[in-house]
Amino acid sequence: MLLVHLEHPSPRARYIARHLFARLLGWPVTFVATREEFRSATGPKLLHAAAAEDGAFHLPDSGWLRSTGLNVQRPSPHRTGEPLSLFPTAVGEDVLAAMFFLIGGVEEWAITARDRYGRIPADALFLVRGGLEGTPWVDRWALGLAEGLRARYPSLPAPARRYRHVLTVDVDNALKYQGRPLHRAIGASVKEAVRGRFSAARERWRVRTGAQRDPYASLPHVLERVHGRVDRAIAFFLMRGGGVYDHGADMRHPAVRDLVRATARHAEAGVHPSFSSSEDPALIAAEREALAGIVDRSVGCSRQHFLRWRMPDTFRALADQGIHEEHSLGFSDRVGFRCGTCSPFPWYDLERDEETALMCWPFAAMDSALGDHAGLDAAVAAQAMARLSDEVRAVQGTFVSVWHDRFLSGHGPFAGWPEAMMEVVRHARA
Predict the structure, then answer these.
(1) Are 326 and 358 in contact (CB under 8 A)?
(2) Between 20 and 30 A from 261 (CA), which of 59, 154, 395, 425?
(3) For residue 260, what are the CA distances in angstroms to 176, 220, 294?
(4) 358 and 313 in contact (C-beta within 8 Å)?
């Protein structure tokens, strides 16, 4: 049992201290309200305060966690080696403030820059600007703190952490040709003919007439191969199609519904809210209900299509509509740890200054970031993902990988990607 006294027990300080000790370290912890009670207590105890006190492990308090609302001062990082220092004081680093700054997504509330899809550009983020996104700093800080505490108090247990691999798939298409309106199929075929891609046009109509299997129909088999080799598998289904950015097949088509049900036999079913859902949160509820009706079970996991969200509207809508896991926190154009952590954490509503029940599961690597953006072939991309899984394994965290149905089809330009996924699965196995 660890006793903790926060000299200034602000909502943010209480939130991050609970996350650190209960979730990241798995330690039984009791928060002591008064300094008098804390001083008289025996056993392992930690003080978060400006000044140290005899008999207690001291974590410096920079005062930053006493900020309220959105008017929060940004840190000026000091990096003279390891570890990274964000909130230094005369007597050491304010680790609680540093952790909260990263997992609280503090700067995401203030950045106004947007890319062409309406997202915050990665290079506008503090970690990316400093070239720091490749390290799960929060988890490193937690383990370093645990090491110091256990050196002083040998009765404290080892941190209760377990490495795991959560494999996720964004099902943006469901099927390549089936479930598409006739007029779109005709239009696509005309374009292919003009470009001399006659084999693609022929394939399209062979699939539509039942003479050939849809090239994306292999997803259930791909996920069946990873059964028992990953800790979890989640498939996020895009329920809308026909838009500029939403390419999902028609969920009313029998073949598409069969594909969704077959996939859901080998993975948890999550919703992939459509491109416009960040402006119209009501879409999230409708799409979630539609998916639940197909798989005949409740849907509690979500990842935004195009990783597109609005702060705080999207996260509040997800929480209000019964979503308990959010999986959008990561990069679309690179690998790394957007929130500086590889461990799930509850979303903190900075404007309302309150912890919510919505758990954020940050991901570390996405196939399209490596293939489409970095231009890596499947084998090299697998090596990059494997290295990142090693970084997560080193801190006994949760490695979340992201794949797409088009990559896992192995069709055309995606040849080699299903085996790349299996190589990552083999390497990242717990």
Answers:
(1) yes
(2) 425
(3) 13, 9, 8
(4) no
Which tens digit of pLDDT belongs to each residue from 343-400?
Answer: 999 999 999 999 999 999 999 999 999 999 999 999 999 999 999 999 999 999 999 9
62-76, 303-317, 416-430, range with the lowest pLDDT: 62-76
Phi, psi for 224 (deg, rounded to 5): -65, -35
Mean residue pLDDT across the chain = 94
Q: What is the pTM of this model?
A: 0.95
DSSP 117-133: TS---GGGSHHHHTT-T
The strands making up 354-360's β-sheet, listed across from edge to edge, are 345-349, 354-360, 325-326, 301-302, 268-271, 232-237, 164-171, 398-404, 365-366
**Residue 371's beta-bridge partner residues?**
none
**Intra-chain end-to-end CA distance of the chain, in Å:** 29
pLDDT in tens, 189-233: 767 777 888 777 788 788 888 889 999 999 999 999 999 999 999
The residue whose two tokens read 């979630």 is 288
Answer yes or no: are the C-beta atoms of 101 and 141 closer than 8 Å: no
Count of domains observed in the chain: 3
Phi/psi for 189 (5° steps) reads -65, -40
Q: Do 372 and 257 belong to one domain?
A: yes
State whether 125 and 194 are in the same domain.
no
Distance CA 358, CA 279 (A): 20
What are the residue ranges of helices labelled H in 195-341? Answer: 198-208, 219-225, 254-264, 282-295, 313-320
What is residue 372's predicted lDDT score, i.e. its pLDDT?
A: 97
pLDDT at 81 over 60: no
Q: Is residue 141 part of a domain?
A: yes
Angle between the N-to-C axes of helices 282-295 and 313-320, in degrees from 0 to 180, rounded to the nearest 10:
40
Q: What is the pLDDT of residue 196?
A: 81
CB neighbour burial string for 1-11, b if at least 16 within 10 angstroms, e if fewer: ebbbbbbebbe
Number of alpha helices (DSSP H) and beta strands (DSSP E) in the chain:
15, 15
Q: Which residues contact residue 306 at a Cβ distance below 8 angstroms, ignoring those fewer than 6 apart?
A: 117, 119, 245, 275, 332
Which helix (H) or strand (E) segment holds residue 418: the answer is helix 417-427
Between CA 274 and CA 308 the distance in angstroms is 9
Read off the tokens for 357. 């029940």
**What does the pLDDT read at residue 79?**
59
Asked if residue 389 belongs to a domain, the reply is yes
Average pLDDT on 288-297 reads: 98
Domain of 252 in residue numbering reads as 164-178+215-327+363-427
How confident is the model at residue 70, as a pLDDT? 82
